């Protein structure tokens, strides 16, 4: 797939009409229409800023993405924060339109039904189709704002990766503590790291020359196209509530980054 073909796969613009309907046109001509209110549109436009208000928001969003719907007690145990702290952030995030809540139908008799929180799934659908590499606007002032959003988005991605990768440490520590008991260690390895495991992390990296990177990029664009097809199928699948896995897709211009770092260290 060429970059021109890629731009046909990933929509450059997500249009909102007078009735507040977001229309996403897919490569096959299929249209996905998502009705949003003013607050939800504002949230999409300020998504990065709203996430960056506090580090705990990344954890809260990721936990709700994985477990679909939880109460404050369940969430506070996972983020290792007090209920009051979690409640304060959830309240603000709900006001910002990032999450929604409802009172639990089933609860202990004589007790106040707890609030259950979940992500605003309409926003998620729109954000998942955001353009990967949109063209910057021609107007210089708008271009500066566009560049700022690119920088913010990259910083958010880096921060999210750091948070998610750090979740591996408890598993690795547990694995290491069991090395004196080969039976238990083998069970952990088979469950999380073995070739037949469906739960374990997967890491790998490859260094490319410019010549072969261009070929890799074509493969990568094909992968993104198939990924979009999977995301579309997943969003249209009524049985999908929880999302158990996260897939990272990162490519770094390593030589350029090392060169830039070297120049910075020299004060150039």
What does the model show?
It is a single chain. This protein is mostly helical and 268 residues long. The chain has one domain: Winged helix-like DNA-binding domain superfamily/Winged helix DNA-binding domain (Arc Repressor Mutant, subunit A, Orthogonal Bundle). The protein is built from twelve helices and five strands. It has helices spanning 3-9, 38-45, 47-51, 56-67, 72-79, 83-95, 121-128, 140-166, 168-177, 182-192, 210-235, 254-265, and strands at residues 15-16, 21-25, 31-35, 99-103, 115-119. The protein has a three-stranded antiparallel beta sheet with strand order 1-2-3, with helices on one face. α2 crosses α7 and α5 crosses α6 (83-95). The radius of gyration is 22 Å and the shape is globular.
What can be said about the biggest beta sheet?
3 strands, antiparallel
Overall tally of structural domains = 1
CATH-scheme architecture: Orthogonal Bundle
The share of residues in extended strands comes to 5-15%
Helix content: 40-55%
Ranges where pLDDT stays below 50 over 5 or more residues in a row are none
Q: Write down the Rg.
A: 22 Å
The helix/strand series, from N terminus to C terminus, equals: HEEEHHHHHEEHHHHHH
Mean pLDDT: 83
CATH top level?
Mainly Alpha
Helix run count: 12
């Amino acid at each position: 797939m060429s970059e021109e073909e890629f731009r046909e796969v990933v929509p450059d613009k997500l249009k909102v009409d007078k009735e507040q309907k977001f229309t996403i046109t897919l490569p096959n001509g299929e249209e996905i229409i998502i009705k949003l209110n003013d607050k939800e549109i504002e949230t999409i436009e300020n998504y990065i800023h709203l996430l960056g208000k506090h580090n705990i928001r990344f954890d809260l969003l990721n936990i709700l993405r994985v477990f679909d719907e939880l109460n404050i007690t369940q969430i506070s145990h996972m983020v290792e924060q007090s209920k009051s702290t979690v409640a304060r952030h959830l309240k603000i995030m709900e006001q910002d339109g990032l999450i929604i809540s409802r009172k639990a139908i089933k609860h202990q008799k004589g007790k106040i039904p707890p609030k259950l929180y979940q992500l605003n799934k309409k926003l998620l659908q729109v954000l998942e189709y955001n353009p990967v590499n949109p063209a910057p606007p021609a107007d210089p002032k708008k271009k500066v704002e566009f560049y700022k959003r690119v920088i913010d988005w990259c910083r958010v991605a880096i921060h999210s990766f750091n948070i998610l990768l750090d979740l591996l440490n408890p598993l690795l520590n547990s694995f290491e503590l069991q090395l004196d008991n080969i039976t238990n260690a083998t069970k952990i390895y088979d469950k999380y790291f073995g070739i037949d495991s469906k739960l374990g992390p997967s890491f790998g990296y490859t260094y490319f020359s410019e010549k072969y990177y261009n070929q890799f990029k074509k493969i990568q664009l094909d992968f993104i196209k198939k990924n979009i097809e999977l995301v579309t199928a997943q969003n249209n699948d009524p049985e999908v509530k929880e999302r158990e896995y996260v897939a990272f897709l990162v490519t770094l211009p390593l030589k350029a980054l090392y060169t830039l770092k070297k120049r910075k260290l020299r004060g150039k």
